[in-house]
Amino acid sequence: MRLTYPVSDATLGALTEQLRPLLVQAEKILANPRHGDFAKWKAALDNLPATARVTRLNQATVTLGEVLADQQALKQQLMGLHPWRKGPLNLGGVAIDCEWRSDWKWQRLQDHISDLTGQRVLDIGCGNGYFGWQMLGAGAELVVGIDPSLLFVMQYFACQHFAGTKPTNLVLPLGIEDLPKSLTGFDSVFSMGVLYHRRSPIEHLQQLHRLIRPGGQVILETLVIAGNEQQALVPKDRYARMRNVWFIPSSKALVNWMQRLGFVDIRCVDECPTSLDEQRSTEWMRFESLRESLDSSDPNLTIEGYPAPRRVIVIAHKENKS
Ligand SMILES: C[S@@+](CC[C@H](N)C(=O)[O-])C[C@H]1O[C@@H](n2cnc3c(N)ncnc32)[C@H](O)[C@@H]1O
User: Fold this and answer.
1) How far is the CA of 18 from the centre of ligand 1 (A)?
2) pTM over 0.90
3) Closest approach atom of ligand 1 to CA 86
């Protein structure tokens, strides 16, 4: 399988000049990958059987490809890309029950976002691109997802093997730090599950503000604590066994930060604890999951003694000065 992004200028539209170098950079990274398991993942992709390419959107399970005859062989190939974290997906008739019921997050936000019809969207920390397919289902013309995890990018290419060619969902092996400061003009920018991994949440929010066009929307999803405008948790070390967690604000503090940075029309559209049904170990993600990250005698606490994961969805806009 060729690990390339054959996208026309017409699809990239007004963003062509800005995005073309990023596509080149992404292809270079995949041509010279730095991961010990890459050859194994590539072999799994190369062994996927030929199939009719079909995309079925607007349903909880992103369903790609026609049902193939040898389901057992296909399942084995797809298992070569374990662990599958974001789904549910169905590829060539094989149901992939991922660690996360990401469709629940999509359900919580889909009725609150502005219409994506015809939009060019950026999804930062997009994982395997599950949400990108949902965004296409909601009418987006182009979704540019970025995620530095090469395994998730390979899972995306497995999806792409089964998918129809239009509209376009991309997952590039890039981190937010790879985006040039001058990049701007997206109609919508999603940042879900990323803010708490950033050392400087304020810089992350400033970057989101820069990336959207005037009048465009940001959809921000992140961990929060209960608390007032001035409160945020900075874990001493790990949070729910995760390394690299920096700031977990209250939703009021988060709105305050966003107001100060110039976002307008800021709405918290959902806030809820993460349930053991939404994030769990499955056949397709056999490692430990949320259950093992919580205090076994008090599920309201993480094993480190912090409040258990609770997440907010905030939608905000950049002022349209015209
Ligand atoms: C908690 S997951 C969230 C995935 C998805 N957006 C969701 O909401 O389910 C965080 C994702 O951010 C990615 N990530 C980590 N560092 C990143 C960076 N510097 N830039 C962009 N994405 C990053 C991880 O690989 C991971 O897929």
Assistant:
1) 22
2) yes
3) 9
